[in-house]
Amino acid sequence: MMAQNLQAVGSVTPSQPQSQLDADAGQAYFDHVMAEDSRIEPRDWMPDAYRRTLVRQISQHAHSEIIGMQPEANWISRAPSLKRKAILMAKVQDEAGHGLYLYSAAETLGTSRDEMMGQLVAGKARYSSIFNYPTVTWADMGAIGWMVDGAAICNQVPLCRASYGPYGRAMVRVCKEESFHQRQGFEILLELANGNPAQKQMAQDAVNRWYAPSLMMFGPPDDDSPNSKQSMAWNIKRFSNDELRSRFVGMMAEQVRVLGLSLPDPEVRFNEDTKTWEHGPLDWEEFKQVLAGRGPCNAQRLERRRQAHDDGGWVREAATAYAAKMAAKNEAAA
Ligand SMILES: [Fe+2]
Ligand SMILES: [Fe+2]
């Protein structure tokens, strides 16, 4: 695929540093890669807007993984058994790993992790609205795994084919782990749903609480999502927000029957004419408020992140001092 691209654009090679490329030739190469549905790699020429869009999307995604650790970490010490604690701890650790892959992918676009983390702790960066909701019972661990990680899978599987190489490759591993997260959440709900009436009710309440916020994870409706069209033209996004949401609702509608629970939405149905799943109206005003920082836990999540960042300051200082010491040692030996 790459060899074909090279032939098509003559002297432009993807590994040349950006400064050596004439912008027209770079654009021609980029357009060709898009038309071929091939991949752009870090040293390839790319339009500034493409780079900016990716940095924004990948860093928001990384922030979501990192902030997303909080609502579940909240339950590690209260998990009902040693086995549940170990599973939940592993899951929260996976989310930290996802954040790290994604910060690394974003760094290949020329923005440092320090800068991205600085924007997050300053409250200037966005992350998924879902993580600003509280986790009030153990059943929320089940609902988050099944619904929130489930929505993440619907969103992220198509991103494995994203046109930016490091992002797509990070997504492949992330998605494998998300599948495990979803299964563990489903299993928590299944056990509760087959428990006593109070446990079953606890599972149903959690599903009721997380249903609408998880549907909103796909972002605003298509007619109110101005950047989606461009992201689709750049082969970053493959399906629209509404398409992905509908697919997710279908998945939930099938699986909820196995749980013996129900979705809190009487309008969920499969439309035989359009062959798509439909759902009832969502409160987009609430979505906007949560994104704007006025959700139930926004302040708490950011404060916790800031504190963790400050607490880790000595590790960064020590690593910097060690790197300087090693550099001086190598210089002296040379
Ligand atoms: Fe994740
Ligand atoms: Fe996950």
From TrEMBL:
One of its GO terms (cellular component) is cytosol. SUPFAM superfamilies: Ferritin-like. Residues 1-20 are annotated as: Disordered. Its EC number is 1.14.13.149. It comes from the Bacteria. One of its GO terms (biological process) is phenylacetate catabolic process. GO terms for molecular function: phenylacetyl-CoA 1,2-epoxidase activity. The keyword Oxidoreductase applies. The keyword Oxidoreductase applies. Keywords: Oxidoreductase. Coiled coil: none annotated. PANTHER family: 1,2-PHENYLACETYL-COA EPOXIDASE, SUBUNIT A, PHENYLACETIC ACID DEGRADATION PROTEIN PAA. NCBIfam families: PA_CoA_Oxy1. This is 1,2-phenylacetyl-CoA epoxidase subunit A. It comes from Arthrobacter terrae.
